[in-house]
Every structure is written in C-alpha cells, then in structure tokens.
Specification:
Mean pLDDT: 84
Helix content: 40-55%
Radius of gyration: 18 Å
Distance between the termini: 23 Å
Largest sheet: 3 strands, antiparallel
Low-confidence stretches: none
Structural class: alpha/beta
Shape: elongated
CATH architecture of the largest domain: 3-Layer(aba) Sandwich
CATH class of the largest domain: Alpha Beta
Strand content: 25-35%
C-alpha cells in the first residue's frame, strides 16, 4: 500500500491511498496535535490494520503519481528562467512516462535549446496558449481525448 498525504491550511490532510498502482481510497482528515505522521499512521492503523509506516523520498512519491496518472501536464505560464528546472523535473518524469506528458507554454515564452532537446528526444507533446481560457480549453480537450483513449485500451 502506498499513501500520498497533502497538508491543507495547516490543519487538514487529504490522503490518497494506492494499491497495485490503482487509487483505492481518498479521505480528508483533521490534523492531530502530534502532527502529520501520527495522524496518517493512526488513520491507516484503524482503517487498514497497518503496524508500520515509512516515508518515501520525493522521487518515489513522484513515481507513484506518474505510474497512476493518465495525463501529466507541465505548465510554463511565466518566464523567470530559461527552463532548467523543467529539465530536472522531466529527467525524473521521463523514466517510462514520457508518452503521458503534455508541455503547455504561454505564447512568447522562450525555452532553452537544451529543454527543446529533451522535449524532442522524448517526443513530449507541446502546445502553446494565449491566456487562461485558451489554456483551460486545451487542458479539457486533452483530458477528454486521453481519458477516452485509455478507456478503450482496457
């Protein structure tokens, strides 16, 4: 069993529980005084009878998300750098997941040659957009087709 926990507003936790790469349960919890680990452990012990909890490094958490995701969007909405941070992130994501990745960038934002090499090498699908409505439309359209195609694959 793998569990991803997300802390909200300092006192709420959302849990996403996976078994065999499938999301099997979600729940929102009130954070206990003892902290996040204790709250998650107590919930899992009561609900699933676990006796031990161990934290995964961040790349293992990303791998759980990547394995279960149908579509992965990387969004470049604002130019602050030439995209090196995207290279680092994509290097971790590309291990077997490149076909799920859609890189969406706002028109007029420059990307480094190295980032373009990565996008081309791994055949990442890239789209541009003008503004928020255009972005929303692209995401909805992409999700519609990708989810429809994944349903017919099984």
């Amino acid at each position: 069993m793998e569990v991803l926990a997300e802390l909200f507003s300092g006192n709420r936790i959302s849990l996403f529980i996976f078994q065999n790469d499938q999301l099997v349960d979600t729940d929102d919890l009130e954070l206990e005084k003892e902290g996040t680990d204790t709250t998650v452990y107590n919930y899992l012990k009561d609900r699933y009878g676990i006796s031990e909890l161990s934290r995964l490094p961040i790349f293992n958490k990303l791998d759980v998300l990547m394995r279960t995701a149908k579509v992965i969007f990387l969004l470049r909405d604002k130019e602050e750098t030439r995209g090196g941070e995207y290279l680092e992130l994509m290097h971790a994501l590309f291990r077997g997941h490149a076909e799920k990745i859609w890189f969406l960038k706002k028109n007029g934002i420059a990307l480094s040659a190295m980032l373009m090499e990565y996008l081309d090498k791994y055949e990442v699908k890239m789209r541009t957009y003008q503004g928020r409505r255009d972005l929303e439309s692209a995401v909805i359209r992409t999700l519609k087709y990708q989810l429809r195609n994944s349903d017919t694959d099984h």
